[in-house]
Amino acid sequence: DFNIEKDFKFKVKYEVLPEIDVKDYTGQLIEVPDLQVKSDEVEKEIDNLLRSNSSQEDADVIGDDDNFLLDVELTRTDESGQPAADSKPEKMQIDLSNENVHPDIKSNSRGKKVGEKFKFHFHDERMVQNKDGQDEKVVEHFDYEVLILGIKKIVLPELNEELIKKATKDKLSTEAEFRAEIEKNIQNYYDQRADEFIRNRLIGLIITKNDMKKVDTKYLKEYLQPSALNEVKWYQLKNEIQKKENLEVTEKELEELAAKDAEKTGLPVEKLINYYKSSNQMERMLDKKLFDFLKEKNEIKKVNPETLAKKQKEEKE
Questions:
Q1: At CA 130, angle to CA 128 and CA 133, rounded to 5?
Q2: Are strands 299-303 and 29-33 parallel, antiparallel or unpaired?
Q3: 170 within 8 A of 186, measured Cβ to Cβ
Q4: What band does 307 get if pLDDT is binned at 50, 70 and 90?
Q5: pLDDT(219) > 70
Q6: Which of 53, 162, 232, 250 has the most CB within a 10 Å radius?
């Protein structure tokens, strides 16, 4: 109410977060895939290195291995073996070392020379939507005739000290060191994936264990992304856990981080601390502290990845 020379009265409405008695965020069992590096993964990385440093030379005949590049003319044929009426010959290059190349192409081209032909059969099954919007299986069969126009042999280099130094920018020199480094890098990637999995499972579990009826789900479902509801729930739940467990980023922790970063950047410690406080660095540190706490207070069990994937599929169904 606004009247000159009289009391000025007004009302203010503002949103407040509900008070939540968060529960069951510790002592839970979390199953995560036990991802370990396999020897064939290391071999594949080494093979990629060798192929990226390979050379090519003309060849008269396709040998028994897959290290060949073929320039070919591909023609689709009908049931009688003649060129299909609706098909035109297509020139392309086929890398027999590519794992996606049809097995029949690899096997049927063995021992063939330039100017010779071979055939292969392609079988395709896929799900498509029909005119009624229902999924139905479509099965197609194609026969092809391949004319070989040129053959090149892929010559792989030796995995020696020179190549290893080149690949690692002189950091490593022996094959044993190189293999160990590849294995470590792959395992680091798997460990990061496992951490992401644990994080997502913890968030999902804590949200499930805490029913939040005060969240306006109708608005969220109608106007926001499907993930927004969980984002809102988790924002409130994690704040309650942080308060309940007295999790915070201390001045000492900021100073220690600033001291380390000062050595790397040459910037003054005080300037870095001020930057951390004005940016979301403190939030990231607190987030890490929260998940370290949750991982410590819950049972993390590593299980076979295939078994876990099957179990999760059954849970969704």
A1: 100
A2: parallel
A3: no
A4: confident
A5: no
A6: 232
